[in-house]
Amino acid sequence: MTRAPLLPLLCMLVLAHGNLAQGDTVEDGTSARAASQTPTASDGPLLQTHTATLQLTLEHAVALVDRTAKAASTSAELLVAWEMGLETSRAITRAAKERHFDSFGQYDNEINIINQAVPWGYLTFYGEGQNPHFELDLKVWMGLANALPDAPAKAFFRLAELSYDNASFYGWSNIQQRTWDYGGCSPMGTGLHLNLLTQIDAIKQSPSFASKVQSTLKQVRDLTITDLLTGTPEFPYCNRSEPEQVAKMVAEGRRIISTVKLSEEERTALQRRVDSKMGLSAN
After folding, report:
1. How far apart are CA 167 and CA 192, in angstroms?
2. Domain-by-domain residue ranges, the chain?
3. Interacting residues of 19 by C-beta distance below 8 A, sequence separation 6+
């Protein structure tokens, strides 16, 4: 990752307590355990004027994440950098929301500066372009994982690719294929549900690593299992009126039953679902 020069805009963003608050000393000797301050904001450049409980300039935070990620020689070390990146991204998101950033053009200059300065993430928008969120760049994190000698991080960011298309595991899941701003359909029968659950099982083959990402694995698994067992009202199965597609859904359900680690309750419920043609027997 090559870090672009940080302009004065990227000066004083302060992070909440988290993985960056481990007493690390950044390049100029400033400790990440700097004295706390009362949150402040003004009409100046966003990343220069927002503070929270733990003082750390964005320049130092970005550099610390960048340096830790590039220095990682194992999946566990890269995971530390990823957690630091998430902490930094939350701080940027909070500041952007306080300034009411949107994607309608008024803030394009500041947004571009932020995105050019942070090599491992980018500011994007949800909710019709009105809700900013800083996300971790999947290509960057997958590239770092693929350079490692061990497998867990590769499997983890592959799960990110399958489930959300970003390394933050945030936003609309790929199970939720939108055809409009707040709804669409689920691609059951394409193999995605099977691939997601299989990937989670693969990550769990490394218990030490998996224990550190339990909440993320649960998030993806719960969404997948719910869609299998009950469906989602806003995202009914795609092409559900086509017999050929329904047959593919049933086949995927059967394969999940035979290959994925499920609880007995899940297995029984999914078998009932398969027997009812994934709840589409009346169609």
Report:
1. 18
2. 1-150, 172-283
3. 80, 83, 84, 87
CA 168 from centre of chain: 2
DSSP states of 233-251 as a string?
TTBPBTTTT-HHHHHHHHH
pLDDT per position as a tens digit, 99-122: 899 999 999 999 999 999 999 999
**What is the rounded distance in angstroms from the CA atom of residue 172 to the CA atom of residue 165?**
9
Query: In a 3-state reduction of DSSP, which class is residue 185?
Result: strand
Q: What amino acid occupies position 125?
A: F
How do residues 221-242 score in pLDDT, each as one tens digit? Answer: 999 999 999 999 999 999 999 9
d(CA 242, CA 2): 49
Instruction: Report which residue type is found at 203.
Output: I
The distance between the two most distant Cα atoms of the chain, rounded to a whole number of Å, is 68
Residue 27 tokens read as 């390049």
Q: Which residue's entry shows tokens 């450049």?
A: 45
